[in-house]
Design goal:
With 225 residues, the protein is of the alpha/beta class. It is built from eight helices and seven strands, in the order αααβαβαβαβαβαββ. β6 and β7 form a beta hairpin.
Length: 225
């Protein structure tokens, strides 16, 4: 019996995803507990930059169900460009990049506010043999993703929840008609974001899906003027 060299059965991809998952299981609870305890003493909620620093050692990967769904979407849509807000250690990037490789081409452009996390994601992509399909940009996604090489076919939102709508607003002109938007961690999403993608006549057909902790899946019905 031969070992799969493509798909999620690729030994290198599976090993890195498993390492990220084990890191999240062993490290994330304590990191997040300390982060919440620290921020609780602050007079104002943490900014995105402060939260990124507090959570710098947390892997915060997508749930495997969401990761497999991303792989399925990329394989079926055959996108030229996937864009990601909130790369962290790169688990979601790995799922997308593996699917692009198996499609025979395409690129995922990720964004990560914390430089250390961005470097770790790049290392994971290199070890998985997928770095040729991914570009991780470091810094504020609203700036780093403002210029893109092509229209967006698939967008993943999985960063600081309060920035979902501002980031989407920046990227909407680049969303092609028929583009899909996957927004992770549905219970945590701000009401104004949900209102935006579910608004009648607002340019999306959107619904919740019970994958992982819940996602919002939005179809872009028309390109922004």
């Amino acid at each position: 019996m031969t070992t799969a060299t493509t798909g999620l059965g690729d030994a290198r991809v599976a090993a890195v995803l498993d390492e990220i998952a084990r890191t999240a299981e062993s490290t994330d609870p304590d990191v997040m507990k300390r982060a919440y305890a620290t921020a609780a003493d602050w007079p104002q909620p943490p900014t995105a930059e402060q939260a990124a620093e507090l959570c710098a050692q947390a892997a915060l990967p997508v749930h495997p169900q969401v990761g497999v769904f991303l792989y399925q979407l990329v394989r079926s849509l055959r996108p030229a460009l996937v864009v990601e807000f909130g790369t962290s250690f790169g688990a979601s990037t790995l799922y997308a990049a593996a699917a692009l490789r198996d499609n025979g081409g395409g690129r995922v452009i990720g964004s990560e506010l914390h430089p250390g996390k961005a470097d770790r994601a790049r290392e994971h992509l290199e070890r998985a043999g997928l770095s040729a399909y991914a570009d991780i940009r470091t810094g504020d996604a609203r700036e780093q993703l403002a210029t893109l090489p092509a229209p967006i076919d698939l967008l993943l939102l999985d960063g600081w929840k309060e920035l979902y709508l501002p980031v989407l607003t920046v990227l909407e002109p680049a969303l092609r008609t028929g583009a899909m938007v996957v927004s992770d961690n549905l219970p945590m999403l701000p009401g104004e974001f949900i209102d935006h993608v579910r608004a009648p006549g607002g340019g999306y057909l959107s619904q919740p899906l019970s994958l992982g902790d819940g996602i919002e899946l939005s179809l872009r019905l028309r390109q922004a003027p």
